[in-house]
Task: inverse folding
């Protein structure tokens, strides 16, 4: 891009110099013009020495060597006069004058043409969304088709995208039914988890063209160019619809709009974002253009992007778990010569926290190691060596979690899960993972069965207990407290205080609502409290009591079932992720063991040993 501009400037400067030079040359060589009558007068007075006739155009010099030019309306009458004065005559046909005129016209035209070419080519480049040097990035992916088979370990995302592929393949089928086709899919997840790959695979599976652009490409440009790039990109894409537009790092343009007076850079970003929103709203239903965007910072996105009809489908792609890593390893191992003795699952187990890109890198590094040792195939120790090298790199980025932290996280999440499983009226478990995501070391997800709007007291108390289960498990097993539970405790406290102050569920306080704070009523001294200091104390005490009671019960529950806790945590440490079904299997096997033990106890007590 820069080179292009420099070249353009150079050519313009050159052209300007040429034009200037030509003009000077013309002025130097074309002598002052005389009227024909002056010329005749001079001629008659015998002042003319030489004449050159180019058609009716007369140039020549007088006796003292001054050049002049004139134009004759009557050549026939002129010639005898010239001869009479013994003037030296030379002549050329009039047609020849055309050459100079021709060049006079041609030169500026050719310069203009050259300039036009430069700008036109730049424009062409822009229309497809890139500068001249980057043209290759825009070639449709057909040439090097990526399919779902190339993307491993994200089965859930694939299922969700299946529908989009259907739309792309048979848009008429859906538009005939009057269905509004989806427009945008937001892939969110840490870098290197295969978002780009997945977007390409959607295009590959549906056999449609793939346009791609990085969000930051838009922004590091002149004001207004980002927005026009967006429009040009969409215009180009619509021509080859159905197709996919992939926008990587959409947070670069899609960050929250500031609203207040802003700097030039964010102005440009907002213009670009607005252009994108306008384009996305503007498709008609017969143009199937699906915009797939990727980000690892969904939290900073402008809410306008996530509204219906825009990126209303959001798919989260996390770091792969053990199964995922095994599958990704398999995919990449296919492309290199791996020794058949190599146990890919063992390798996968030893690289928690690796992303898909890290694994691709690992396989490549291992191949390089094997090459360095002159081996015919990649063996286990090549993987080991490559792994150490990569982990050192990653550790610097502090993604890899220490073994101790993993254990604590596993028990913490197991604590949540077990309490949730053992108590009534809780939301069913959905997924438990000890793979770090964002700032969370692990996650236990519960899905509400339905969107309830009223909650029973039991539900709320059990929810508090489930939240405190993480901390209780940590303290039970490791006898120490970590900060990992701070978010849980925050939420639990919030629920407890609403039980007391908002929902009037506490017996000690009764069915009275105490609003803690009112918007706009905040006074300088702090919160606005429409009740006495005494009442405040009683409320605080009651909230405290609920939390303490819940914690006690939870701790006891986990203590009583600590075998289950250990078992659950071990499974988590091994598999890193458990879904509801797997958790249920562990739960049932624990219940069965318990049943057996109880029976054994029963037998023992029936036949007491002497
Ligand atoms: P992102 O866009 O999420 O940053 P990429 O799609 O660019 O990640 O992934 C980079 C590379 O890592 C891919 O080209 C591929 O080789 C590898 N990779 C990442 N995730 C996967 C996966 N799930 N399956 C197979 N390969 C993967
Ligand atoms: Zn927790």
Result:
């Amino acid at each position: 891009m820069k080179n292009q501009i420099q070249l353009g400037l150079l050519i313009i400067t050159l052209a300007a110099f040429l034009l200037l030079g030509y003009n000077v040359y013309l002025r130097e060589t074309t002598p002052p013009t005389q009227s024909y009558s002056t010329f005749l007068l001079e001629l008659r007075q015998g002042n003319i020495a030489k004449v050159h006739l180019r058609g009716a155009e007369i140039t020549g010099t007088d006796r003292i060597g001054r050049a002049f030019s004139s134009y004759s309306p009557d050549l026939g009458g002129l010639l005898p006069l010239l001869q009479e004065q013994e003037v030296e005559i030379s002549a050329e046909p009039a047609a020849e004058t055309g050459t100079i005129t021709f060049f006079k016209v041609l030169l500026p035209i050719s310069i203009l043409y050259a300039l036009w070419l430069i700008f036109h080519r730049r424009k062409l480049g822009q229309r497809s969304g890139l500068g001249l040097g980057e043209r290759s990035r825009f070639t449709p992916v057909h040439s090097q088709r990526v399919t779902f088979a190339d993307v491993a370990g994200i089965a859930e995302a694939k299922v969700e995208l299946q529908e989009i592929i259907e739309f792309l393949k048979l848009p008429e089928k859906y538009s005939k039914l009057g269905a509004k086709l989806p427009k945008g899919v937001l892939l969110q997840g840490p870098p290197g988890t295969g978002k780009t790959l997945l977007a390409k695979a959607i295009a590959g599976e549906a056999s449609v063209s793939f346009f791609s652009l990085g969000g930051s490409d838009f922004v590091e440009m002149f004001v207004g160019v980002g927005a026009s790039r967006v429009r040009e990109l969409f215009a180009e894409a619509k021509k080859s619809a159905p197709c996919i537009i992939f926008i990587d790092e959409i947070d670069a343009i899609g960050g929250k709009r500031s609203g207040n007076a802003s700097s030039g850079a964010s102005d440009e970003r907002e213009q670009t974002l607005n252009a994108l929103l306008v384009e996305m709203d503007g498709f008609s239903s017969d143009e199937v253009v699906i915009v797939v965007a990727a980000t690892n910072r969904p939290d900073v996105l402008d809410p306008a992007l996530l509204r219906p009809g825009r990126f209303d489908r959001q798919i989260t792609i996390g770091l792969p778990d053990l199964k995922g890593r095994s599958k990704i390893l398999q995919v990449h191992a296919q492309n290199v010569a791996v020794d058949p003795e190599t146990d890919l699952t063992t390798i996968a187990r030893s690289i928690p926290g690796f992303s898909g890109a890290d694994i691709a890198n690992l396989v490549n590094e291992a191949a390089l190691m094997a090459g360095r040792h002159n081996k015919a195939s990649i063996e286990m120790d090549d993987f080991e060596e490559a792994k150490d090298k990569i982990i050192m790199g990653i550790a610097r980025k502090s993604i890899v979690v220490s073994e101790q932290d993993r254990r604590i996280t596993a028990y913490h999440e197991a604590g949540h899960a077990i309490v949730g499983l053992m108590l009534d009226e809780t939301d069913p478990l959905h997924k438990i993972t000890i793979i770090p995501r964002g700032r969370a070391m692990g996650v236990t997800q519960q899905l509400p069965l339905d969107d309830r709007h009223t909650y029973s007291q039991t539900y709320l108390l059990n929810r508090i207990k489930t939240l405190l289960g993480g901390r209780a498990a940590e303290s039970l097993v490791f006898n120490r407290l970590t900060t990992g539970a701070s978010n849980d405790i925050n939420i639990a406290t919030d629920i407890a205080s609403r039980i007391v102050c908002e929902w009037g569920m506490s017996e000690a306080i009764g069915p009275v609502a105490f609003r803690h704070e009112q918007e706009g009523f905040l006074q300088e001294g702090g919160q606005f409290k429409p009740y006495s200091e005494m009442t405040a104390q009683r409320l605080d005490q009651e909230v405290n009591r609920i939390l303490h009671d819940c914690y006690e019960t939870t701790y006891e529950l986990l203590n009583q079932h600590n075998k289950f806790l250990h078992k659950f945590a071990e499974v988590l440490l091994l598999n890193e992720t458990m879904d509801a079904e797997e958790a249920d299997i562990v739960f049932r096997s624990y219940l069965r063991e318990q049943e057996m033990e109880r029976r054994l106890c029963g037998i023992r007590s029936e036949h007491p040993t002497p």
The chain has 21 helices and twelve strands. The chain has four domains: 2-99, 148-316, 333-392, 403-594.
